[in-house]
Every structure is written in C-alpha cells, then in structure tokens.
C-alpha cells in the first residue's frame, strides 16, 4: 500500500520483503502486487541500492580475495552475435589483469558463454571454487558456471516479473543485473549496455538511464563501475550461432575478425585494463591490447584457458575440427541497393528456429547451426548476391530461417551511413555521449 501511494520504502522494509519472499514466508500474490506498484511508482536511488544489496545477501557470495590483483568483470545486457567474452577474457588476461568470470547458459536465440565454450571438445565449467581461484592465479583467467545459490531472490523475482508484465522497470532491471555481479566477487565492473532492435533496451535514452542506475549501484557498494553504451541495431560481427561465433572469436584474436567486434572488444578491454590498474588511461590500454592481438598473445591465452578446463586446444589452430552443420545454404538478395537496416532480433529468432538457442531451460542446443551474415548496414548489395549463409541440420528449419533472414534485411536505393557502434560512456562522474559526426555534445 505504501509503494502504491508513491511513498518511499525503508531499508528495513526492503530487507524484510526480500528475506520473506526468498524463504517463502510471503506469498507470490503479495509480491506481484508490490512489483506492479514499483513498476508504476518507481524506486529512488537509495531504494534501488538497498534492493540490490538485499538480493546479494539472499544467498551465497563468492569470495575472490585469494586472487592476486584487481579482479575486473564484464557484463553485457545481451544482444545478437555477442561473443565478446571469448575475446575479451583472453586479451585482458594476457595483459595481466585477472579475469574471474562467472557465466550462465543462454535462454534465447543462442547459447550463453558456457554453451559456446562447450563447442571445444571436453571443455568443462564444473570446478570447485578452490580450483577456479587456482586457475586465475596461475593463468589469469577462469570461466565458471554460476552457483545455484547466487542471488536466489533475483531468480525468484525475475520468474514472477516475467509473468506479471513487470520486467521493464529500470530499478528492477538494474538490481537484477548488479546483484549477480556483486555476489560474483569482482572488485570492478565494466558494463556493456546494448541499445537498438536486438537489445533489451530498444531506445537509446532508456539504455543511458539503465547504465546510470547500474553505475550508481556499483559505486555505492564499493565496486568501481563504468558502463559503455553500444549499438545493437544489427548483429555484432557476422556470426550468430555457437560454434560459428567461437570461430569468429578465434579469427578476432588472430587480428582477422570483423571491425565492429574488434572495436567493441578493444573499447571494453581498455576500460577493464584501466580499472584493473594496468594502464593509466584507455588510450594506453588500447595500445597494450592491440599489441597482444598483433603478437598472438591473446590466441595463446585462449589455448591456455581451454586446456586448463579440460578442452582440446588444437581446435584453436584448426577450426575445421568444430562440429559443422549438414546443410550450408546461401540467402540471396531479392533486389539491389544499400542495406538500410537489419532487424537484429529477427536474425536472433531465425538462429533460434535452427536450434542455436533455447526456448525453455530444458531445450537442447545444437552447437553447429546458425547464420553467418555477409552484408551489414551501409553495404551495397547486388540482386542475387549472398547476404547471409544458413548452417542447418533440418531442411524445413533452413527454409523457415531463410525466409526470416530475408525479411530482416531492408534494402534502399539511397546511400546509407554505417551505424555508430559506441554511443557513449557512463562513469561516476556522469554521462558522456559520442556521435560520429561530432555535431552534437
């Protein structure tokens, strides 16, 4: 009733409701009503920070104090073809900054980081926390599965919000993301907040608002946090699908990857190096990371990671060893012109149809299927030219995905400017927006 009437909840009230709901002392119907009241009346910064802390304290927290150095974590709000962790992790670790990453499995158009890494034969994320810490101290990187009891209140609340139309609230989204990041034990956090058709935050203004909220939460609880706002109006890179994305990550670590994926990894990685104390500023950090790619140190670090977690590192040298799909077919353009838009979410749905993702937690992922794009926004295409290639193991699914990919592409006769990838950065000092033409502040 208090929140319904637009009043502020106290720290004690927030702790009481999170604790009571986690322990099943407060029923779903009361919490549903509270979520709807929060959705309409919103929460202020102090309430949001208290909600996040309460969710962190609802379960276990990971103690990474035995890892030497400043542990920097990266979190992406999700997109299509977002394989940055597989590139960022090795290059940041090769620069000497410890990467202790807790990742999840994907629910949606492709698998999560863990699913993608399992494309390497034998790779496993199942390890004790002692082994996890040992690996980071030895080779500067480990990627583990999230423990079942990390921020359990968030898991319960998200399931409820999902079925009560209360997901889309900045405080609840920010609290959900940051509670898991804080519970995971990192000292500093770099957030990649996506905006556009393939992102959770479709509008740029909402993405900046969410980024500001999360940066404030992180810094309020003593975690040095920054956010980079990035474009997701088209898929990142060219590959969408687990093994296909891993191959693209390997190409990128060899210095042969797509420009946008490389640029994003260098930008996020630069901020990770600054927060990790390895560089004084992003410019110095970028030079370090460019050298790591140039001299093959990133690719060697990926091999170390794969090997340390039971995988076969020879897949890195010979990507033909990855499981391939039975059907490989081109999708050709119906007309001529410039690519005006690519509906990223529709490309993601096409990958899901092929079996690259999970519709439910029980769904089994096909690691070999997916889509490789050949044209991005601003590119010119001739009629009959390939705009994408479908990798499928089922003829009917391949036909359906082809139709979806064709419908996702918008072609115009007028020349189109390429998209600006990095929209801005949010730090505790404030918001800085970037525009390609430098015609706006």
Automatic annotation (TrEMBL):
The organism that produces this protein has a lineage beginning with: Bacteria, Bacillati, Bacillota, Clostridia, Peptostreptococcales
Catalytic activity, per the record?
A: uridine + phosphate = alpha-D-ribose 1-phosphate + uracil; 2'-deoxyuridine + phosphate = 2-deoxy-alpha-D-ribose 1-phosphate + uracil; thymidine + phosphate = 2-deoxy-alpha-D-ribose 1-phosphate + thymine
Q: Which top EC class is named for this enzyme in its record?
A: transferase
For this entry, the protein name equals: Pyrimidine-nucleoside phosphorylase
An annotated GO cellular component = cytosol
All copies of the Pyrimidine nucleoside phosphorylase C-terminal domain together span: 338-412
Q: Which species is the source of this protein?
A: Maledivibacter halophilus
Record GO biological process: pyrimidine nucleobase metabolic process; pyrimidine nucleoside metabolic process
Oligomeric state and interaction partners are given as: Homodimer.
**GO molecular function terms listed in the Swiss-Prot or TrEMBL record:** 1,4-alpha-oligoglucan phosphorylase activity; thymidine phosphorylase activity
């Amino acid at each position: 009733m208090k929140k319904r009437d637009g009043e502020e909840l106290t720290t004690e009230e927030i702790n009481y409701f999170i604790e009571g709901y986690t322990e099943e002392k407060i029923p779903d119907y009361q919490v549903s009503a509270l979520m709807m009241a929060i959705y309409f009346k919103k929460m202020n910064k102090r309430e949001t920070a208290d909600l996040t802390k309460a969710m962190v304290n609802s379960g276990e927290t990971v103690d990474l104090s035995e890892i030497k150095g400043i542990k920097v974590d990266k979190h992406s709000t999700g997109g299509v073809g977002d394989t940055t962790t597989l590139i960022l992790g090795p290059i940041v670790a090769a620069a000497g900054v410890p990467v202790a990453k807790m990742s999840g499995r994907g629910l949606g158009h492709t698998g999560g980081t863990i699913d993608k890494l399992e494309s390497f034969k034998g790779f496993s994320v199942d390890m004790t926390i002692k082994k996890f810490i040992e690996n980071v101290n030895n080779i500067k990187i480990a990627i583990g599965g999230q423990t079942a009891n990390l921020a359990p209140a968030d898991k319960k609340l998200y399931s409820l919000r999902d079925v009560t139309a209360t997901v889309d609230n900045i405080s609840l989204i920010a609290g959900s993301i940051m509670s898991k990041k804080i519970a995971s034990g990192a000292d500093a956090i770099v957030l990649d907040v996506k905006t556009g058709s393939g992102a959770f935050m479709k509008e740029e203004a909402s993405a900046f608002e969410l980024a500001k909220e999360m940066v404030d939460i992180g810094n309020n609880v003593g975690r040095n946090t920054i956010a980079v706002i990035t474009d997701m109006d088209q898929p990142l890179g060219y590959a969408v699908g687990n093994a296909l994305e891993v191959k693209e990550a390997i190409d990128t670590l060899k210095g042969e990857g797509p420009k946008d994926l490389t640029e994003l990894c260098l930008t996020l990685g630069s901020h990770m190096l600054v927060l990790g104390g390895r560089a004084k500023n992003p410019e110095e950090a970028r030079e370090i990371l460019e050298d790591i790619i140039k001299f093959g140190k990133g690719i060697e670090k990926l091999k170390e990671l794969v090997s340390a977690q039971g995988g076969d590192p020879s897949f890195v040298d010979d990507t033909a060893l990855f499981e391939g799909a039975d059907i490989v077919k081109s999708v050709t353009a119906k007309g001529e012109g410039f690519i005006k838009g690519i509906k990223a979410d529709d490309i993601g749905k096409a990958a899901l149809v092929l079996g690259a993702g999970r519709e439910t937690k029980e769904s089994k992922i096909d690691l070999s299927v997916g889509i490789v794009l050949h044209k991005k926004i601003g590119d010119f295409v001739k009629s009959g030219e390939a705009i994408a290639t479908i990798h499928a193991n089922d003829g009917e699914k391949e036909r359906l995905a082809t139709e979806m990919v064709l419908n996702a592409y918008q072609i115009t006769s007028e020349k189109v400017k390429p998209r600006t990838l990095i929209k801005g950065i949010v730090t505790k000092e404030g918001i800085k927006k970037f525009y390609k033409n430098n015609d706006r502040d």
